[in-house]
């Protein structure tokens, strides 16, 4: 294993130090708890928006802290749930008396630890609502999940919900919005290569030179099937078809993310986006907004995922609202 | 070779179609000439800023077309200079009677083709000034270069010069600014792996599992030396020391870019930025602005590069000015 790290066990702590060094004007880091926080409190007291999960998916979640998106992100060890202590520290730091929304990807450990934290926070008088993201149509029940896995939709949900919080949306309404976004979004991914977890030091799985892993999880969990590698045009069908089979995306404007898993060149992502957008248009899906790039990654995995989200004018307004984070920035 | 492409020979054309599909509200593509153009002309007639080079370095250059940066980018074949015809088409499209600045990375083919285009444009009455970027301290003379290679500084130069053009800077002053930025910037890179050119289908070079290539070129050209892979702390010294040995960056605010070569996870880039910024501080260098991410890549190469640019208040103002491109976006 060759990586630009010091000790494998220090990867998360070292990376947070670098994030803080680069974006110290925008955010601050509670190094004891490995929680990334907004540098400045919101102008008007409001609901706090907290997320987190295993590290290794950057910019998700730490890179989405800032104005118009998350108030705090808890960075677990690589591909490991954050602890309840981390979630409690993050929630205490951002609560301004209007409660806190927890955005949790659907992995058993994450859900349990966020729920435990929510119970303890309730004892302190902090209102918590939780939304569980489970957008991956690839498999039901998986290595670390009961039910569907939470993957790329998390990025879109954090953007939209962060904007609504910034506009003063109350906790129960914000939770309802978050759940509605989750209901209306679907994702599907494929891998060309494995990732290598630093502490393990070897690839999580071996993929022959002529094969794809279709429906890959963001921790290298097995997907639906291994199949012969195909060109971009056919690969686009492998992503689009299962998503459209799971939900009808015609008739409303759609937000489309074509996401790189970490080691896929931008040239290839744009080739894929060209194919995916053409195919969606042919199937009657209208892309109103798009995002192409490495947004929810799996360390050094090569591959990509597609996320679609049914929108309406209100949701597009939330999408377009100013955001100022290391990973997404516009209107600021 | 496993890549998300259709035919290898269509990679550039397909990628430009995807870029246009994703950013058609911001830019348009002359597919015949493979030139990416601003979607809307500038509000006030001004100098046109044109760059280009071989493809495979995305977002450089096509992803930097838009308000506050480039007016046009010529996309050559992968790692191949754009032709004079492309440069002429781009320059004609953006000339508004105030002349055109060509930003050219120092590779023999690029320089020759841009010069040939400039001569033909002069015959048409279009004033052209050229700046050649040669910031790489790794080697003098290389596989495709007489003199130093042009690498990451190109990103910073395109940002700053694009902002000055947007503010109405005249051609001769703009060229002088561009040359001054080139004089004040230096870069150094290292690779953990080779890249694979689609039309070739195999890695450009083989790098043993325990070695770095120090001073790598952005086309996989050999660097200074191969050495035993080291941790991030020592790797930071391998980048910082040669840059500071070549130019004194103390005493003025500095713009620092820590650039990923395409396949390096963001977690590792932030670990490296943490080490690089600490080391620079210890050496008396004050980082006023920074950029961490994949900005000037080499297809699927793993590795990173460091670029430093001496700034002053005027240059920082140009850096902070609004930019609205697929690859860099702020203030818009």
Q: What can you tell me about this protein's structure?
A:
The structure is a homodimer of 332-residue chains. By secondary structure, the first copy, chain A, is an alpha/beta fold. Chain A has 2 domains: 12-184, 3-Layer(aba) Sandwich (Rossmann fold); 185-320, 2-Layer Sandwich (Hypothetical Protein Tm841, Chain: A,domain 3), CATH 3.30.1180.20. Chain A contains 8 helices and 14 strands. Chain A has a 6-stranded mixed sheet with strand order 1-2-4-3-5-6, with helices on both faces. In chain A, helix 6 (232-246) crosses helix 7 (266-282). The longest helix of chain A is centred in the C-terminal third of the chain and has 17 residues, at 266-282. Chain A is globular. The termini of chain A are far apart. The mean pLDDT of chain A is 96. At the A-B interface, helix 1, helix 6, helix 7 and strand 14 of A face helix 1, helix 6, helix 7 and strand 14 of B.
The Cα radius of gyration of chain A reads 19 Å
Structural class by helix and strand composition of chain A: alpha/beta
Overall shape of chain A: globular
- What share of the residues of chain A does DSSP label as strand, in percent? 15-25%
């Amino acid at each position: 294993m060759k990586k630009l790290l010091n000790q494998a066990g220090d990867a998360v702590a070292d990376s947070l130090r670098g994030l803080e060094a680069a974006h110290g004007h925008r955010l601050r880091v509670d190094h004891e708890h490995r929680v990334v926080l907004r540098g400045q409190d919101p102008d008007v007291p409001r609901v706090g928006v907290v997320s987190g999960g295993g590290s290794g998916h950057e910019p998700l979640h730490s890179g989405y802290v800032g104005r118009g998106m998350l108030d705090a992100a808890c960075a677990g060890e690589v591909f490991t749930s954050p602890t309840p202590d981390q979630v409690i520290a993050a929630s205490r730091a951002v609560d301004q008396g209007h409660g806190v929304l927890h955005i949790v990807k659907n992995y058993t450990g994450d859900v349990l630890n966020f729920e435990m934290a929510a119970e303890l926070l309730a004892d302190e008088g902090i209102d918590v609502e939780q939304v569980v993201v489970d957008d991956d149509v690839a498999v039901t029940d998986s290595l670390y999940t009961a039910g569907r896995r939470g993957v790329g939709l998390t990025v879109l949900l954090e953007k939209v919900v962060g904007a609504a919080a910034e506009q003063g949306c109350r906790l129960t309404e914000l939770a309802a919005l978050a759940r509605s976004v989750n209901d209306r979004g679907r994702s599907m991914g494929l891998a060309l290569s494995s990732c290598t977890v630093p502490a393990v030091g070897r690839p999580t799985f071996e993929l022959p030179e002529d094969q794809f892993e279709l429906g890959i999880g963001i921790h290298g969990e097995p997907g639906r099937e291994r199949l012969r590698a195909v060109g971009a045009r056919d690969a686009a069908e492998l992503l689009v078809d299962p998503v459209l089979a799971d939900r009808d995306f015609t008739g409303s404007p759609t937000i489309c993310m074509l996401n790189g898993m970490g080691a896929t060149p931008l040239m290839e992502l744009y080739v894929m986006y060209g194919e995916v957008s053409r195919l969606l248009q042919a199937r009657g899906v209208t892309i109103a907004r798009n995002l192409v790039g490495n947004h929810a990654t799996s360390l050094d995995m090569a591959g990509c995922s597609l996320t679609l989200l049914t929108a309406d004018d209100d949701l597009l307004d939330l999408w377009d609202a100013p955001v100022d984070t290391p990973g997404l920035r516009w209107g600021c």
